[in-house]
Amino acid sequence: MDQGAARDQVLDAAEELFYGRGIQAVGMDDIRSLSGVSLKRLYQLFATKDRLVEAYLERRDLSWRRRLAEHVETCADPEGRIIAVFDWLERWFAEPGFRGCAWINSFGELGATSATVATQARLHKLAFRRYLEGLTADAGLSRELAGQLLLLAEGAMVTAGILGVTGTAAQARAAARLLLESAARARPTSPAE
Amino acid sequence: MDQGAARDQVLDAAEELFYGRGIQAVGMDDIRSLSGVSLKRLYQLFATKDRLVEAYLERRDLSWRRRLAEHVETCADPEGRIIAVFDWLERWFAEPGFRGCAWINSFGELGATSATVATQARLHKLAFRRYLEGLTADAGLSRELAGQLLLLAEGAMVTAGILGVTGTAAQARAAARLLLESAARARPTSPAE
DNA sequence: CCGTCCGGAGAACGAGCGTTCTCCCTTACC
DNA sequence: GGTAAGGGAGAACGCTCGTTCTCCGGACGG
């Protein structure tokens, strides 16, 4: 087995276990068992558990944002793209094994004691906010709206994780529609539209 | 020192440490050092760490909801009371040592492995949702609105915890006002008001 | 066929921690 | 004053886990 394949298998196992059980609840032995990569190789690839956690969060950040963007791309209308974010959330929440947002969970677990985790969580949320700001800008809408949509999306992730998935994304989407309409009425660039 | 005072001191220490650092990062020795209550007494009061965690979350749930309700009570207008929730969030976020929502953080840390923590988090969020539903009902507004406000409040807590406090509560309040106006326009009980 | 190197399996080590135990001191009662 | 009960300090125990080490087998070069 070559280096790259082993790395992928380790990160696959890490993602499944860290996301599903929490970071501290998963030992390096668990990663080894699930990935089939020996401890020696594991430590050649990632010198410490902390590095592995960092790599897990980084890779998941890229794939999470890519998946979101790919879904949003399927919609051409700038305002529809904003709503599409919440459609995608609904789809994500319904995936088997959904257990809330990996960064919110990691931050709750280790934000106070691990600079790595705190930084990764901040970077991810900043990137998500920037993405929403891009969407609202493309629709000629304010950055304020993006901030409000961020709150709705974060609230939906948390609530779906803790209280369960039923209806949460739809609620968030309905609220997003209202905020979007309200912002469109006051749209700075084309108020008459 | 009598039993009750020792219990209070232990719970005070537990709250400060568990909330500030996370549950797994705090040992029973840390609780003992900060509270000044010996290990023997500590285990007489709480048979296991799990019980202590449960008591911490229960007591904090009561005081958190009491503090919120006390602030909301100061406002007589039913719609003003709804907005007052977000005023109180702003005040809470600004407290020194604010580190997000204790239940969201605990759930992220232990929701997957501890039934105690998962249950406490669900109970707390259910109680908060019920409270918001009471406020919207008092204003003659729909339960749907309460669900949307819950998402905003949860999103604000998470975002304030991870990205920092600046402006988050004000954003949430602005969004809440818009949703409230929109719901008031469609108010089922007194649509003309 | 023999030696050498690489990687795997898992034992070993050391630290941290939940929980219990030991020892000693204080206090209260006869 | 003697004694028993209770509580405090902290050592001890057993377990988990991150990390490293040891040993062995198998592949490859001479």
TrEMBL record, chains A, B:
Residues 4-64 form the HTH tetR-type domain. Gene3D superfamilies: Tetracycline Repressor, domain 2 (1.10.357.10). Transmembrane segments: none annotated. It comes from the Bacteria. PROSITE patterns: HTH_TETR_2. GO terms for molecular function: DNA binding. Keywords: DNA-binding, Transcription, Transcription regulation. Residues 27-46 bind DNA. This is TetR family transcriptional regulator. It comes from Planotetraspora kaengkrachanensis.
